[in-house]
Write a structure and sequence with these properties.
With 235 residues, the protein is mainly α. It is 56% helix and 10% strand. A hairpin with a 5-residue loop joins strand 1 and strand 2.
Length: 235
């Protein structure tokens, strides 16, 4: 029996060796496939994790975008598309004009501060060239008529200029807000003429008044003038 087994191995040793080598090759192939397959799975997992991180980052970016504050403003006059618009509150009047289609051909922005920041509920009127010219002519005529009253040392209560101021004060018992009042309203304050009113507006465009005492920071307005107007103003 033993001799028969040895003879079988002797005569079939080449086939046996070939069979063993075949098994080794096939086993090696399966082992290689298993290793690479696991690597691919790990790579996929990393990519999924990477994608998750990107998604989280995108979400954060979207949240930041949502934090933008928007203001509504009403624009009218010499503008191509007058109406109510929504804009980033950090934008300026010049940006608001662009959003509204731009200026009309007859627009005059010489009396408007285009760099002023937009705020919610703001009303912007763009004047035409004829409106500005007519206003300047009217002011010039009134100034010439009233110059004789202002040139005398004696106060003449009968002068037209004084009558106008008295009428405005009588019809408007509310305090004048120095942060929002127009040029015309500011001139109703005692001792505040057109020049000082313009200085107040120029100052507040850069530095908003936080208290009424801040008006003394405006050029030409000292403590003595402040005493005269402090009962009539607010912020």
């Amino acid at each position: 029996m033993e001799n028969s087994f040895k003879e079988f191995i002797y005569f079939h040793k080449n086939k046996i060796i070939g069979f063993i080598l075949t098994i080794i090759v096939i086993g090696g192939g399966f082992l290689t496939y298993y290793i690479y397959d696991n690597k691919d799975n790990k790579t996929d997992t990393k990519e999924v994790k990477t994608n998750n991180i990107i998604v989280k980052d995108d979400t954060k970016k979207e949240e930041k975008k949502d934090e933008t504050k928007y203001c509504y403003y009403d624009i009218k006059g010499s503008i191509k598309k007058p109406g109510v618009y929504k804009i980033d509150c950090n934008k300026r009047i010049i940006d608001a004009i662009e959003v509204s289609g731009g200026l009309s051909k007859n627009a005059d922005t010489s009396v408007i501060n285009l760099s002023k920041q937009v705020y919610d509920g703001m009303v912007i009127k763009i004047y035409s060239k004829s409106e500005v010219n007519n206003y300047l002519k009217t002011i010039e005529k009134e100034t010439k008529k009233e110059s004789i009253c202002n040139s005398e040392n004696i106060k003449n209560d009968a002068c037209i200029n004084n009558e106008k101021k008295e009428e405005k004060q009588d019809t408007n018992n509310s305090l004048v807000n120095i942060n929002t009042a127009s040029l015309e309203v500011l001139t109703t304050l005692p001792g505040i003429g057109e020049s000082k009113a313009k200085s107040i507006i120029a100052y507040r465009d850069k530095n908003k008044f936080s208290k009424i005492e801040d008006i003394m920071n405006v050029e030409g307005i000292g403590e003595s003038l402040f005493v005269k107007i402090k009962e009539n103003i607010t912020v």
